[in-house]
Amino acid sequence: MQHRRIGDMRVSAIGLGEMPLSIEGRPDDRDRSIATIHAALEAGVTLIDTADAYSLGGEEHGHGETLVAEALASYGGDTSSVLIATKGGHRRPGDGSWTVHGSPDYLKQACEESLRRLGVEALGLYQFHRPDPEVPYADSVGALKELYDAGKIRFAGISNASLAQIDTAHGILGGALVSVQNQFSPSFRSSLPELRRSAELGLTFLPWSPLGGIRTAPDLGTTARAFQQAADVRGISPHQVALAWELAQAPVVIPIPGSSRPETIRDSALAADLTLTDGEIATLDAA
């Protein structure tokens, strides 16, 4: 599998988004969730993205991190090269909604809880999940800087960030900031300016919902006909084409498709070695 870099760490060019294994529609069978993560590892995936808020409600806050820790512990192979990316700054109260919590004290507490659930001394990549309108952005990002200086996190990242917020975080964190995680897919391209800004700064850009999200990803070939047409020519899935197209946007892009079945992450992982022609890329850019 092709690789790219996050900070000074070499990781697979396709990651696994753990969210579908922990929120609505997740597998009823926990064994299938574990098998999906194991299938990703077997396919060469060395980046797993989760968050403390990936759960059905507040009573199981941290479900995603606990699941990842369990899957890594039960995997029979070497996991020393796996980078676990998690996030803090969100909660789910249990009514299907999301709440934001960007205070420095909360983020520091959330980091400590993530360390405990993942069973590590330092988080590989810790990301501020979403800006809190009640807290100055610089204050929230400053908490990540304190955690980095204290050795609690190896790398820092931000998620759902605007251009101005990327610049603010870069100014505060400097070299500690290595990634930006925003929504980006064939059907959602409004974060292309943030992708390009990340590339300018040498920050890894991690598209979340790169196939359009849990509910619409199965219909990608129908909603994005150009991607289905390109897939038909090659005899592959439109999902592979979409991920390869995102990889072609910039060398800093690492899509993190979600998956709830072993076969879907195996299919997505194949996109890391798929090279589209300039003509195909131009057609998909214009679609």
Q: Can you describe what's shown?
A:
With 287 residues, the protein is α/β, with parallel strands linked by helices. The chain has a single domain, classed as NADP-dependent oxidoreductase domain (TIM Barrel), CATH 3.20.20.100. 40% of the residues lie in helices and 15% in strands. It has helices at 30-42, 63-74, 104-118, 137-149, 163-173, 192-201, 220-223, 225-234, 238-247, 262-269, 278-286, and strands spanning 3-6, 9-12, 16-17, 47-49, 83-88, 90-91, 99-100, 123-128, 153-159, 177-181, 204-205. The strands form 3 sheets. A 7-stranded parallel beta sheet has the order 3-4-5-8-9-10-11, with helices on one face. The protein has a two-stranded antiparallel sheet with strand order 1-2. Helix 3 packs across helix 4, helix 4 (137-149) packs parallel to helix 5 and helix 8 (225-234) packs across helix 9. The chain is globular and about 55 Å long. The model has no long low-confidence stretch (mean pLDDT 96).
Give keywords.
287 residues, alpha/beta, TIM Barrel, seven-stranded parallel beta sheet, two-stranded antiparallel ribbon, globular
N-to-C SSE series? EEEHEHEEEHEHEHEHEHHHHH
CA radius of gyration is 18 Å
CATH topology: TIM Barrel
| Total number of helices | 11
Shape: globular
Strand content: 5-15%
* Unreliable runs: none
Strand tally: 11
What's the number of structural domains?
1
The helix content, as a percent range, equals: 40-55%
Within CATH, the superfamily carries the name: NADP-dependent oxidoreductase domain
| Major beta-sheet overview | 7 strands, parallel
What structural class do the secondary elements suggest?
alpha/beta
What would you say the CATH architecture is? Alpha-Beta Barrel
